[in-house]
Q: What sequence folds into this?
């Protein structure tokens, strides 16, 4: 299982993003190797808001339709609370609550790899899918 982060979703969507080609290559590789890509609903919300703001409604609707094919974990109150605790202990200006939810969820489900262009995953002890 590989966590699909907002940074990767955005890079896949925006042809002008500096990581677009790398994201497409990695996405194709993951699919060809039978990797299960997963995300949580906070990532979906964050990605949709970012894409809508920067790329428009049409792209947002396209991403929302495509993401339905992946496994989405739904954040419950206990995961949210654990992520808030992590946030209060480790937060920096760049570390988001959404990333903290990802870190806690990844630990809970023993997911060791993130498809992300965000070094905070590596700093938190996870492997980046490269």
A:
């Amino acid at each position: 299982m590989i966590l699909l982060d907002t940074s990767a979703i955005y890079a896949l969507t925006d042809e002008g993003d500096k990581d677009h080609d790398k994201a497409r290559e990695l996405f194709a590789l993951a699919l060809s190797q039978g990797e299960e890509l997963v995300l949580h609903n906070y990532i979906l919300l964050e990605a949709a808001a970012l894409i809508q703001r920067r790329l428009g409604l049409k792209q947002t609707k396209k991403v929302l339709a495509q993401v339905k094919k992946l496994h989405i974990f739904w954040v419950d109150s206990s995961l949210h609370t654990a992520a808030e605790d992590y946030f209060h202990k480790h937060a920096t200006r760049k570390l988001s609550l959404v990333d903290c939810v990802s870190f806690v969820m990844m630990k809970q489900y023993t997911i060791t790899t993130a498809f992300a262009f965000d070094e905070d995953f590596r700093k938190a002890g996870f492997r980046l899918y490269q």
